Amino acid sequence: MESCRQILLNGLDNLDIAWTEDKISQLLAFLKLIEKWNKAYNLTAIRVIEDMVRLHLLDSLTVLPFIKGNRVIDIGTGAGLPGIPLAIFLPETQFTLLDSNAKKTRFLQQVVLELRLHNVVVCHSRVEAFKPEQKFDTVITRAFAALPVIMQTMAHLLSEDGVLLAMKGKNPPDEMAEVKVKSLVIPVRTPGVDAERCVVIIDKQAISQG
Q1: Core-most of 13, 40, 96, 115, by most CB within 10 Å?
Q2: Where are the domains of the chain?
Q3: pLDDT in tens, the chain (210 residues)
Q4: Helix ranges restricted to H, the chain
Q5: CATH assignment of 2-209?
Q6: Which residues of 19-35 are buried (b: 16+ CB within 10 A; e: fewer)?
Q7: pTM attached to this predicted model
Q8: Is residue 86 within 8 Å of residue 60, measured between CB atoms?
Q9: How far apart are alpha carbons 98 and 123 in whole angstroms?
Q10: From the CA atom positions of the chain, what is the Rg in Å?
């Protein structure tokens, strides 16, 4: 795991994210769990663990500066990406990780238990059927669906001042044209990954007015 640790440390420094040994240990423990459970649960198509550091851990953390408020939900979280890395770095923020795949939510329950993440709740549900008692300051998705679908299925989860963060690959002009609401597209760079990335930011007020 030493090579993974070095890639992680270099990447965090590159992203200007302050880290502690405890956080590094938690991220590497999370990585080991993904690798262990992946054989049976098919959590990710990526098999090389060093690539998981770049494409999963560091890529998830590129959105850290855009998280707003104290209540965050990660929709279609899968193996806990980006939710688990973000929760590790934002221990005072409450995270809900939602996925409709029961195997993946069982994996996440184990992650929460082993990493002692007291700020994370795992929910097995489809997003359309999920009705929380309290709405969220930030709704985040990573490679979940096209923007119009994301807005249609997730708007009910946002608080009045909430923000929707959609992590995307290339800037999606066709999707942006379909959305027809005020939005912000911010390019992001994942250390060690030679591919375009961006975050589309849309606030609840823009969705309501659209």
Answers
A1: 96
A2: 2-209
A3: 899 999 999 999 999 999 999 999 999 999 999 999 998 888 898 999 999 999 999 999 999 999 999 999 999 999 999 999 999 999 999 999 999 999 999 999 999 999 999 999 999 999 999 999 999 999 999 977 788 888 889 989 999 999 999 999 877 777 777 877 888 999 999 999 999 999 999 998 887 776
A4: 2-14, 21-41, 49-52, 59-61, 83-89, 102-115, 147-154, 173-179, 204-209
A5: 3.40.50.150
A6: beeebeebbbebbebbb
A7: 0.95
A8: yes
A9: 5
A10: 16
CA pair distance 124, 50, nearest whole angstrom: 29
DSSP track, 111-123: HHHHHT-TTEEEE
Place of tokens 């969220």: 136
Q: Find residue 138's DSSP bridge partners.
A: 72, 163
